[in-house]
Structure formats: structure tokens, C-alpha cells
Amino acid sequence: MASALLQFLTPAPVNLSPDYDGTEYRWKFITIRPAFFKNEPYFVAAILFFVIFYFWGKRANERRVNKWFLTHLPLLESQFSRPVPPGGSLIRDGNSDWFNYSTGRRAVSSLHTTFTLRPRHDLLQWVYQFGRGLVELDYKVTDAVELDFTFSPSAASSSVPDCVWAVIAKDEMRSIRSRRWDLTFTKTNDQPSLPPALTVMSEFADVTTNLLKPLGTLDLTRVLSDPAVLKYFRSISVTDQPRARPSAPLPQSQRKKHLILELSLPPTSDAAATLPLVQAAFQLVDAIAGEGKATGLRGGLAAQLRPETKNKLKKYREVLEKEISEEAKREQREEEEEKRLAAKRKAEEERLSKLSAAEQKKAMDREKKRAMRKNQTRMKAR
Predict the structure, then answer these.
(1) Where is the stretch described as Disordered (predicted)?
(2) For helices 275-289 and 205-212, what crossing angle results, to 10°?
(3) Which helix (H) or strand (E) holds 183?
(4) Which of 309, 111, 278 minimizes the C-alpha distance to 210?
(5) Considering the chain, what percentage of its residues have pLDDT values greater than 70?
(6) What per-residue confidence (pLDDT) applies to 269?
(7) Could you give the CA distance from residue 370 to residue 364 in angstroms, rounded to a whole number?
(8) How many other C-beta atoms are found inside a 10 Å radius of the C-beta of residue 225?
(9) Domain spans in the chain, listed from the N-terminal domain onward
């Protein structure tokens, strides 16, 4: 059996007969006859293709991210005292994700800029995404950049109200609802002042009225109506809630308010197209916080809302916090009950292990009878 297996695994001997009349290369004791290589050229070509595809995709992503960042860097430098990390460059995580952290500005604690690009360097993922896009009509993968402004504690406590509001591109509605729990607070409605491709998600119309009206040098509806800008716009949102539903009420020290701008990353040839949107985001931050040159929101957005709107926002959050607290307590009770039952089972197993075989059998029979009686009682109750 072993000899037959070895014969099957042993490759056929190389034909080095003198009758070979094809191309031959010799170097010292090495002889290469290309005619004998039938599948190897395809393997080598596939490996070379993978390597070339990897470096092409890696370089393409680098160019796109760096071009956008360098184009917008002067704006960041004019807004922040520390526009980039101490190293002076983007933080890289693989070949499709980059990050930047900016700080040192009024009304804003920090700005996190996140780039998420298609895996152009990974042929298998590229093929998977392409194939999935053909099967699932609502599946869309794009190069994206997100700017997450975190309001400073002073602005968040005095000028920025507890509310959730957003302007969303309609083709992003399905995906954004699945990844943004906070936007489930809102109702969707179209605004005549915005392009038909956009919709507003707001808890109350009062918030929308104040944010879409001209605010000094800022006219958000005009910026969003520019076709050159609109094709890269995905969403802009103001929120006081986390993106994912918390498992327990958040302590006050962990509660933060954000303005989040989501864009499709433009190609290198059009990197400056999103500058007006980013500039508008800075102006909107100042308007909401009651800072800067933007007028019309003196005292910030919180001062402009009607008292009944503020009361409704506050009441809804109190109810929500109570629900989350009750959920957390219920889950805690269930976990404690599971631990108690597990400890009881373990103690019973330890007790049975110390008994003789006959006593163990009697104990198991008693347990079976007890289980049967419980089942009969349940059936009668039905």
C-alpha cells in the first residue's frame, strides 16, 4: 500500500533525452527546457498580476487620500491651532483606512477625520464587492470621508440643544438608518428649499427652520444646491446621542454632542470640490454654538428653539433613559439568575459525583420523574 502511494505521489522523471530538439538553456549543471513548462507560466503570470494589482491599488488609495487632505489642509490650519497630530501626517491603518485628529479651536473639542476607501489593493475583496453589487441593488461601496466635530463641553451645555437633526442624500437612507441608531429619533420630510435628491430628518420642525435659514455668511441650502458639491454629499447631522444604542444610561461625563459631515471622497482631479461643504460645516458649528460671525442664532441654537420644543426634547430623552435603565436592570437580573442556576447545577453535579453508581442512578431517576410531572402540569394548564 505504501509503495503504491509513493508511486502515485512521485512526479514523473524529467525527460533529458538527447533527442530533444526544442529551445534549451544551460548554465553549469543546470538545464532549462521551456517546452516542458506547461502550467508554470500561468502560475507566474497570476502571481505577477496579484502583485501589480496590490501595488497599483495601494498607490491609488494613497494618492486619493493625500490629494484631498493636502487640498483641505490650509482650511484646517486656519481653523485649528493643532490641525494634524504631532507627527504631521495622517495616521494610517492598512491600505484603505486613514485618520486625522485636529484640536485647538473655539466651540470644538476635536475634529476626527476618517477616510474609508475601497480595498483597491485586495483583488479578492474587489471582486466580492463587485459581484455583491450586481446581486444586491441597494449595496453600494464608495470611497468616503467623515468629519466628526465634537462640541466643547461649554458649548454643549449652554448653546447646543439636546436634539437630533440631519440632511441626508436619499440614496443613503437605507444604509444610514442601519448604522446610526440616533437617527431613529427623527421623522423624515422633504424641504422645498433643498434639491429633490436630499431629505431632512428632524425631531421637530423648529430645529429645521433655524438651521436651514440664512445665517450670516452661511446659507446651507445654497451650498447643498450646487451640483458640483451635491454629487459628493452624503449627510450632515447634529446629534446628542451615540451612534449605537447604549446598553446602559451614559454618565454625564461621557455624553457628547457632535456635528458629523459625511462625504464621498472625490477623485484627485476634483479634490477641491468639497471645500465649500467643509467650510459650511465649520460655519454651522459656530452658528449652533453661538460663536463667530454667523448671525441669526444669538446664544446658539438652544436659545432659538421654542420652550415647548425644548420641553418635548427633554421629556423624550427622560423616557428613553428610563427605558434603557429598565432594560439594563432586566438584563442584569437575567445574568444573575443564569449565574445562580449555573452555580446550582455545578453544586448538584459535585454532589452526584461523590455518590456511588447505584445512588447516582436513583438520583437521576428521581430527576426524570420530577421533569415528567412538570411537563404534565404544563400540558394540563394549557
Answers:
(1) 323-382
(2) 120
(3) none
(4) 309
(5) 91
(6) 94
(7) 10
(8) 14
(9) 47-322
- CB neighbour burial string for 257-277, b if at least 16 within 10 angstroms, e if fewer: bbbbbbbebbeeeebebbeeb
Cα–Cα distance between 235 and 146 in angstroms, integer? 9
Q: Are 147 and 113 in contact (CB under 8 A)?
A: yes
**Mean pLDDT score of the chain:** 86
Backbone dihedral region for residue 267 (phi beyond 0: left; psi -120 to 50: alpha; all else: beta): beta
Q: What is the DSSP string of 216-234?
A: TTB-HHHHHT-HHHHTTEE
| pLDDT of 294 higher than 60 | no
Contact 324, 248 (CB under 8 A): yes
At 290 the pLDDT is: 87
In the three-class reduction of DSSP (H, G, I as helix; E, B as strand; rest coil), residue 208 is classed as: helix
172-175 contact pairs (CB < 8 A, 24+): 172/234, 172/235, 172/262, 173/199, 174/138, 175/138, 175/140
Phi-psi region for residue 228, left (φ > 0), alpha (ψ -120 to 50) or beta? Answer: alpha
- Give the separation between CA 293 and CA 90, rounded to whole angstroms: 30
3-state SS, one letter per residue, for 259-294: EEEEEECCCHHHHHHHHHHHHHHHHHHHHHHCCCCC
What would the mean pLDDT of 311-315 be, rounded to a whole number?
Answer: 91
**CB of 228 closer than 8 Å to CB of 273:** yes
Q: In terms of Cα–Cα distance, which of 217, 230, 193, 182 is closest to 287?
A: 217
SS3 159: coil
Which segment, 28-32, 216-220, 228-232, 302-306, is predicted with the most confidence on average? 228-232
Cα–Cα distance for residue pair 187/164, rounded to 1 Å: 10
Cell of 369: 420523574
Position 221 pLDDT exceeds 90: yes
What value does the mean pLDDT take over residues 179-206?
92
Lowest mean pLDDT among 7-11, 74-78, 227-231, 303-307: 7-11
